[in-house]
Design a protein that fits this description.
Elements (H helix, E strand, L loop, with lengths): L1 H31 L8 E9 L7 E2 L3 E4 L4 E8 L11 E4 L3 H11 L12 E4 L8 E7 L4 E6 L10 E6 L1
Parallel strand pairs: 1-4, 3-9
Antiparallel strand pairs: 1-2, 4-7, 5-6, 5-8, 8-9
The chain binds copper (II) ion.
């Protein structure tokens, strides 16, 4: 019995040592992996203003970012009326109306973000007083549009997004 215990102990020690050795071998290539390049962020804060379908608007009309950057948009809903629910979608140029129509079908469960190749990015909905943040990698150089896809808002709440 004693021999068995000693043998087991010896085995454990052997395993421990061999494990230790193989571990150092494994870690070596990991240290050679290049560190990830830092993301360059361009940050914007857009206020959603107004309390009626007539006067609602974004505080920004144009957004311009550098190609290759990451974009962070903070959408601050300054509305007080419970009907003032907003989001923000970035879409391909000239596709605003088309995406706005598809957004109604997508509905609130999808935050009015239709599954479409013309949608670059879309935020969650912000209720009055709330802020939502949208983060995405800037698409290829070119002109894009942004708008609120909450039903009935797309013609009043919109602007242009440029990647330069
Ligand atoms: Cu809206």
């Amino acid at each position: 019995m004693k021999t068995l215990i000693i043998n087991t102990l010896a085995l454990c020690i052997t395993l421990f040592i061999s494990c230790g050795t193989s571990e150092t071998k494994v870690t070596e290539p990991v240290t050679k992996v290049k560190p990830m390049t830092e993301k360059v962020w361009e940050e914007f804060t857009i206020e959603a203003l107004g309390n009626t379908m007539m006067d609602m608007k974004y505080s920004l009309k144009n957004i311009s970012v550098k190609a290759g950057s990451w974009v962070r948009i903070n959408l601050v809903n300054k509305g007080l009326d419970p009907a003032m629910i907003h989001n923000i979608l970035i879409v391909n140029y000239n596709k605003r109306s088309e995406v706005a129509t598809a957004a109604i079908e997508a509905g609130p469960n999808l935050d009015y973000i239709p599954k479409s190749k013309d949608v670059i990015a879309g935020s969650k909905q912000a209720n009055p007083g709330e802020t939502v943040t949208l983060e995405f990698k800037a698409p290829a150089k070119g002109n894009y549009e942004f708008f609120c896809s909450y039903p009935g808002h797309s013609s009043k709440m919109r602007g242009y997004f440029f990647v330069k």
